[in-house]
Amino acid sequence: xxxxxxxxxxxxxxxxxxxxxxxxxxxxxxxxxxxxxxxxxxxxxxxxxxxxxxxxxxxxxxxxxxxxxxxxxxxxxxxxxxxxxxxxxxxxxxxxxxxxxxxxxxxxxxxxxxxxxxxxxxxxxxxxxxxxxxxxxxxxxxxxxx
Length: 146
What we know:
mainly alpha; 0% strand; Ferritin; 5 helices
C-alpha cells in the first residue's frame, strides 16, 4: 500500500472528526439517559474543535476540508439510527456503537501518527488521540456502570 501524503492524512482526520461530531450528536438524540446525552454532546463539541484545529494545517498544504464526511461514518450513523428505532432498544446499543466509532477514530489517528508529519502537526494529533482514548474509556465506563 502506498504511503499517503500529509494532506491526505490530515484530510482523513478532519473527515474522521466531522464523522465523530455528527455521530455523537445523533447518539445524543437517541439515548434516554440525560447524563449520557450530555456526554455525547460534549464529545460532539470536542470533535468539532478537533476538526477546526486540524483545518489550518490542511489548508497550509493546499487541501480543502470535505464536510460531507466518510461513507463509513454515514453507515455507522445509519446503524445507530436503526438500533435506536428497534422496539425496546436500550441506551446500551447506542453506547456500544459509540465505543465502536471511537475505536475506528483511534485507528485513523494511529495510522496518521505512523506517517511522516511535521512535529507541530504530530504533537497536535498525539494530544487529540489521547483525548479520544480517554473518551472511549469514559463511554466504556458508562456502559459498565449501567
